[in-house]
Amino acid sequence: MSSPTNSSILVHKNETEADRVVSPRVSRGGALVWYGLLVLAMVAGVVAFIIRAKEGLASTGLTTITPWGTWVAFYIYFVGMSAGAFLLSTFIHVFGMERFHKVGREALLVAIISMVLALTFILLDLGRMERFWHVLWYFNPTSVLAWEVRFYVIYILLLAAELYFSMRQDLIRASRGTGWAARVAAVCTLGSKDLSEESVKRDHRILKVLGAIGIPIAIFGVHGGTGALFAVAKARPYLNSALLPVVFIVSALVSGTALLIASYTIRKKVSGQIPDREMLKSLGGLLALFLSIDLGLEFYEFLIGAYGLEATELATLKTIFAGQFAWSFWGIQMLVGAVIPLAILAYPRTRNSPAAIAAAAIMVVIGIVAVRFHIVLPSLIVPVMEGLPEGYYLPTWVELASSLGVIAFGLFLYSLAVTGLPIDVRQEIDKGVKENE
Question: What domain count does the chain have?
């Protein structure tokens, strides 16, 4: 029996000029409407950005008591999306789980774009945005943030390299065509025409090495490290927990898997293609597993925090469970983001339906937004010393419009990438893998 990798190589070796990646079939009118909406949202974001740059943080709802808000919440949201999507890609390239190979490239693409958005959000949050480069130029070895930013740079470069080598063979094929996509492909391949069996094997080896290097970077440096940024805040008992980085990592797997399911299914539906039912069922099972573990870790995080009987942490938990965040915790984080998706993924009829799995994934993506806000804001609401006023935060239109613009920018990049790059694995490879498994 041939391995999936060998079957892919045989198909590559015997391909013809007609063997192309299936390009999305989206109507011109639908594409114009979609890009038009994204451009409008990005224009609103640019206007808000200009106001933010001119007026500084005075244009936001942030205060000295509540210095973190919407931008920081979205920052950790997209870092988690990136780390989770990347770790899912390692199942394919490092551990050889070929049943997920159809989303391998999309996982890497989503990971890259998510990191771009995460760093854009944290740029907006800087008091002096023009000094963003200082964190790279000056290095304090005792600073968690100093290490974290360097891990981000290495991680993004690694993601870009891995995405490139996963597409390189199809980029060479695409460079033979005409149009702007072919010209871009020709530039990306540096004029290479090598489609030999040895070339394919070499690309597979490189992917495996890059993926193996990226696993500890993603776990300990990227999202685990982002969790450490919050966990070392000793003045905030709710955050100061050694379990928090672990919660961040598991939550990343939840959000990354959910986003990948949603993006893959929506893209296939919009382009008139049929999503892979069996692959979605497997991804849905992983999502249910990760979500269950995440809920268990959260339970112990809350339990241990309450058991310590520390007044500030108890007040923070009360703010989440029965205070001003109760509606979003119980309604969005727990009901929409966990209970309903788990029910969908557990019920036999719906867990076998691609549409139902995608709906569950979308609800998880929405629920994780609430999770991130509940990490950032509640601990800042409760005063850490007697006599200090309670924190208060309500995002201004500048924060909301800029956030909408950044997210629209990410969707714009994604739309361009899936149109111009060979994100889908060729049908011939898919067929060859199934026949030789």
Answer: 1
